[in-house]
Automatic annotation (TrEMBL):
Residues 1-20 are annotated as: Disordered. Its EC number is 5.6.2.4. It is an enzyme of class 5 (isomerase). Residues 333-456 form the UvrD-like helicase C-terminal domain. Pfam families: UvrD-helicase (PF00580), UvrD_C (PF13361). It catalyses: Couples ATP hydrolysis with the unwinding of duplex DNA by translocating in the 3'-5' direction; ATP + H2O = ADP + phosphate + H(+). Residues 30-332 form the UvrD-like helicase ATP-binding domain. Keywords: ATP-binding, DNA-binding, Helicase, Hydrolase, Isomerase, Nucleotide-binding. ATP binds at A51, G52, A53, G54, S55, G56, K57, T58. It comes from Homoserinibacter gongjuensis. This is DNA 3'-5' helicase.
Length: 456
């Protein structure tokens, strides 16, 4: 087996982890508050930046990366920055490039999934896969599961495509495969036994198709590193600075991946000609890890995010430095006080108190309506008032807890001829509206509802 990677065993300067502040160009630090500045400049094995909403974490992360490049503490290829979305990765790359220009070329700024795809394509052979493996998206997964459930006729046991897909995803995010699950399953329970068989056939189907699903990308990379320490060592040697954004939303597999990547390189995996500083045992110290997050902003618990990853960071990395970013640059103090009061009752959180120098601002208005339509009418009236006072519609936003709540507001906005756009969810108006909105009236068949039903 041959392993190919970019040249990286020649650090710029000393590759160790200096603990004193580096000589960073002051222009890069311009405008930062003292905590942000410390978060950019701190050097050590592990750093947790607890960043409240709107506290400038993106500015800090990008400047931290830029400072590593500018001071030549790292080659671009030695930096791995992980974000949660491709959009965030592109934005971060652009912002780093604005700060250091072409010096950012060759740096890995990507999502967990993209980074794992790159690693797996290079090392696929070790996994018994062809490097041109296919990636199954959720539609491919659903199609295969639908076929398997039908073949096995297990829908009668309550196994649906979404429930099975969700359970398989959860297991993979916990790094459990078919064999691990088989050991813990209750074989006397027909539904459990059926699920195990579906999971088994699904895994075999993926392998026959030389395919991996989204969750496999991360789990298989972890398995690869654990099964082939020499492969893990390649990436441990390569990435000397690992930065992870939105750490509160990492699941167990993502957490395990970061743990593998930040392990020290064992002496037997250190090339004889390395110019990297070695530790007392002749190995290479683990990569420097920076994570940014906020337990109060965790939003992915439903898909396996484990808030303990951030809350227990200091246990996992005992030498970690913790820096709190509490100054908010987006909101007024009244809004922050309300937010602080709400998040104060979150469990498992790092204590912090958001503040601003922007002043108290307007008071918050609370309104309790009698119905969803009552609430929606209130919102629409407020929008009209603001608009008449000179505010542009595009500068206003309405937030919802669940997508289904858009329906009442959309109805009222349409009626009031207020232009709007739904972000992040399908518009409820694309659903068969009259049938869903007037089911009772349709049965009563007044002339108006008859027409509405006919139009649906
Ligand atoms: N030191 C600072 N002085 C003035 N403005 C700042 C400072 N730091 C950040 N900001 C501004 O605060 C806003 C939020 O910054 P940024 O987007 O980096 O924050 P964030 O923590 O990533 O936000 P969120 O997590 O809520 O998305 C931006 O408009 C940014 O320009």
């Amino acid at each position: 087996m041959t392993f190919l990677l970019d040249g990286f065993d020649s650090d710029p300067g000393d590759s160790g982890l200096p603990s004193s502040a580096p000589a960073v160009d002051e222009a890069l630090l311009a405008g930062l508050n003292p905590q942000q500045r410390e978060a950019v400049l701190y050097r050590g094995p592990a750093l947790l930046i607890v960043a409240g909403a709107g506290s400038g974490k993106t500015s800090v992360l990008t400047r931290r990366i830029a400072s590593l490049l500018q001071t030549r503490e790292a080659w671009p290829s030695q930096i791995l920055a992980i974000t949660f979305t491709n959009k965030a990765a592109n934005e971060m790359r652009e912002r780093v490039e604005q700060l250091v220009g072409g010096a950012a070329d060759g740096m890995w700024i990507s999502t967990f999934h993209s980074a794992c795809v790159r690693i797996l394509r290079r090392q696929a052979e070790a996994m018994g896969l062809k490097s041109a493996f296919t990636i199954y998206d959720s539609a491919d997964t659903r199609a295969m599961l639908k076929r398997i459930i039908k073949e096995l006729e297990v829908d009668t046991l309550g196994l649906t495509v979404p429930s099975v897909a969700g359970k398989i995803s959860k297991l993979k995010n916990e790094l459990a495969d078919v064999d691990t699950y088989a050991r813990q399953v209750n074989a006397d329970d027909p539904a459990d036994a059926a699920f195990l068989e579906v999971f088994r056939r699904y895994s075999e189907g993926l392998r026959r198709a030389n395919a991996l699903d989204f969750d496999d990308l991360i789990a298989e990379t972890v398995h690869l590193f654990r099964a082939f320490p020499e492969v893990a060592a390649l990436y441990q040697r390569r990435f000397r600075h690992i930065l992870v954004d939105e750490y509160q939303d990492t699941n167990h597999a993502q957490y395990a991946l970061i743990r593998e990547l930040t392990r020290p390189v064992e002496p037997q995996h250190v090339p004889a000609d390395t110019r990297t500083r070695l530790d007392a045992n002749g190995g290479i110290p683990g990569a420097s890890l920076t994570v940014v997050g906020d337990s109060d902003q965790s939003i992915y618990a439903f898909r396996g995010a484990d808030i303990r990853n951030i809350v227990e960071f200091e246990r996992d990395y005992p030498e970690a430095q913790v820096i709190l970013l509490e100054q908010n640059y987006r909101s007024t103090q009244n809004i922050l006080d309300a937010a602080n009061a709400v998040i104060a009752s979150n469990f498992d959180r790092q204590e912090k108190n958001l503040f601003t120098t922007a002043g108290a601002g307007d008071k918050i208005t609370g309104f309790t309506g009698y119905s969803a339509y009552d609430e929606a009418q209130f919102v629409a009236d407020e929008i009209q008032k603001l608009h008449e006072a000179g505010a542009a519609y595009k500068d206003m936003a309405v937030f919802f807890r669940v997508n289904s709540q858009t329906r009442a507001l959309e109805d009222i906005l349409i009626r009031s001829a207020i232009p709007y756009r739904i972000a992040g969810a399908p518009s409820s108006t694309s659903a068969p509206r009259s049938r869903m909105r007037w089911p009772t009236s349709c049965r009563s068949r007044t002339p108006l509802t008859t027409w509405l039903c006919a139009a649906s």
